Amino acid sequence: MTRMSKAFYLGSFIGASALILFLAIIVGVMAAFVPNVENMKVHAVAGLIFFVILCIAVGIYLIVVTAMFFYKMWDAIRGEGAPISPALAVALLLIPIVNLIWAFLIYPLYVKHYNEYIKRRAADVGALLPAGVFYAYPALLGVYVVCTAIAQVAQVAPESALLLIVALPFSIIGMIASFASFVVFLVIVSKVCDAVNILPYTTERGGMVRSARNG
What we know:
Elements: H1 6-32, H2 38-75, H3 86-94, H4 98-121, H5 131-156, H6 161-198, H7 210-214
Helix pairs in contact: 1-2, 1-6, 2-3, 3-4, 4-5, 5-6
C-alpha cells in the first residue's frame, strides 16, 4: 500500500515556497540597486545570476515533489474506478498550458473518486474527504488568475486615473486569493496524506480495521 509522509510534503512545499519568495525578493532588490560603479556591478550581476540559478533549482525540486505527490495520491486508488492513472496525473502536470487547466481539475476529481472508493470499502463515513476544501482551492486559484489579469491589463493600458483605481483593488484581491489558495493547498496536502495512509485499514467488505480506530 502507498504511504505518504505528511511532514515531508508539508515541509517541502512550505520550505521551498518560502525560500523561493525570499530569493525572489533578494533578486528584485539586487536588480533594482545594482551599483553604477563598473567593478561593483560585475560582482552584483554575478550574485544575481547565482540567486536566479538557486531559484530555478528550488523550482525544480518543487516540481519533483509535486509529481511525487500527484503520483502517490492517485496510485493509492488505482484500479478502483478512478479515471486517472498515476502516470497520467504526473504527465498532465508537466505539459505546459495543460498543467494550468489540470491544476483546476485534479483536486475536485480526486475527492470525488476517493470518496467513492471509501464508500465501496468502508462503512465509516469519517474516512471520507471533505469536498469543500478541494473545490475551494481551484475557486481561489481562479479568483487570483482573473484579478491578477485584470490588474495587469489596467496597468499597461493608456495611463488613466480610473484604470489605476481599478488596478489597485484587483491587485489586492489577487494577492489575498493567492495567499488563501496556498493555505488551502496545504490543508489539502495534509488531508490527502491522512486519507492515503488510512487506506490500509479499510477492508474490502466494508468497515475499518479495529486497530486503526483504536490507534
